[in-house]
Fold:
Amino acid sequence: AQSVTQPDIHITVSEGASLELRCNYSYGATPYLFWYVQSPGQGLQLLLKYFSGDTLVQGIKGFEAEFKRSQSSFNLRKPSVHWSDAAEYFCAVGAELTGGGNKLTFGTGTQLKVEL
Amino acid sequence: KAGVTQTPRYLIKTRGQQVTLSCSPISGHRSVSWYQQTPGQGLQFLFEYFSETQRNKGNFPGRFSGRQFSNSRSEMNVSTLELGDSALYLCASSPEGGNTIYFGEGSWLTVV
Structure:
C-alpha cells in the first residue's frame, strides 16, 4: 500500500526567504505525485503534479517540486516566500485502482507560517 | 470553467440524525470522489463514483454511502451520525482517463 510522509509538521520562514517542504513516498510503481495547498476554512488547491518525464515540475504561485526516485522524495520549493503563502501544504501520491479510477493518499500536512 | 461545487458549506447536526451532502463536479468530469478530513485522521478516501456506479470504496462503515446521478453530480449520506463524524467533507472530480483530482471547498459538518 502506498504511503506519504511529511516529516515537518510546522515550518516558519521569514517573508522573502526560500522554502523547502519535504515529502517522502512509498509506492510500488511509478507514482503520480501531487502537492496541494489548503488555506484556513478552504478546500484543497492543486499546486503541481508529477506523472512522468522531467523530474523538475513547475506549478502555480511560483512553486516547483523535484521528483527524486532514488530518494523516494518529492520536495516542494519556492525561492522567495510571500506572506500569502501561509497555509497548510499536503503532499499526495495517486494510485490507479483495479476497478479504474484513482485514489489519493495524503501526508499529514505541513503548516507554513510566514513571519513579516 | 466552474470548479467543483459543494453544498452546503456548513451544517450542524445532532447525534443520531442523518445528513446529505451534495457535489457538482467540473463540467465534463465523470469521476467524483469523496474524502473526509479530520484533525486526528487527516485526509481519508471515502469512495469514488463513475457513471453512476461506485467504483472504489475506502475503509469507512456502512453508515457512509453515496450515489451519482446521470449528470455526474454526486451526493454522500451519513446515517446515524456520531460525534466523530464531525469533519470537513471534500468532494473531488477528475476527467475520464485523467489522473489529476480537483477538489471543492468542502462541507463542514459539526455533530453535536
About this structure: DSSP finds no helices and twelve strands in chain A. The longest strand of chain A covers residues 87-96. Residues 8 and 110 of chain A are 6 Å apart (CA to CA).
